[in-house]
């Protein structure tokens, strides 16, 4: 029963916010109302509750650093978390460009790719000296800047340096949206490490990136073969 409510309540909390197209004060009020009348599990959505108890962060919208706890390494406020997550929605709707270019029907999204890389990191056997949790986290953020810049591929005629510059700028914007703070900093560090290939975890996650793509390519190939077998 307890685990059931854990699944249901977060979904309801989010549907309230996501059903409203822009984050007006009425969105925030309804979210606040919901939070005031619902007992959320203590961990999963604590950032929403924390923010709802601070009326200034809700009424000010983007003012994510109320002065009373500016020094604490706090999670993002509800409004900045929702803005960030709304932007991340594009990761779910942006198709991976490599498949689009190869005319794959209904190809996977950037989020699809990152999600399965996250699973790969999660099920990988222990490697001495490798922080597995960090690999999972890195896998699910390594393409996050593409929420803004899209999936830029060599065929777009954009040089690697320019791609990297645009992505850094996008990442910076997303971290600011999240209100800076320790969570944003972690995302930025994970992304930078991956981008610059500067840690053992980054090198492994880059391998996962390739393996996931190869697996997906095989699946598309098999899918196409299966369709042909069915129709012939
Ligand atoms: C990352 O660094 C390792 C060496 O430390 C190298 O073998 C690998 O090719 C690099 N990967 C990329 C994508 O630059």
Automatic annotation (TrEMBL):
Cross-referenced SUPFAM superfamilies: HD-domain/PDEase-like
Pfam families: HD_3 (PF13023)
Reaction equations catalysed: a 2'-deoxyribonucleoside 5'-phosphate + H2O = a 2'-deoxyribonucleoside + phosphate
Domain (HD): residue spans on this chain: 110-214
Signal peptide: 1-26
Gene3D superfamilies: Hypothetical protein af1432
EC number, UniProt record: 3.1.3.89
Assigned keywords, A-Z: Hydrolase, Metal-binding, Signal
Enzyme class at the top of the EC tree: hydrolase
GO MF annotations in UniProt: 5'-deoxynucleotidase activity; metal ion binding
Domain of life assignment: Eukaryota
GO cellular component: cytoplasm
Needed co-factor(s): Co(2+); Mn(2+)
Function, as annotated: Catalyzes the dephosphorylation of the nucleoside 5'-monophosphates deoxyadenosine monophosphate (dAMP), deoxycytidine monophosphate (dCMP), deoxyguanosine monophosphate (dGMP) and deoxythymidine monophosphate (dTMP).
Family listed: Belongs to the HDDC2 family.
Summary of subunit composition and partner proteins: Homodimer.
Descriptive protein name: 5'-deoxynucleotidase
Organism the protein comes from: Gossypium tomentosum (Hawaiian cotton)
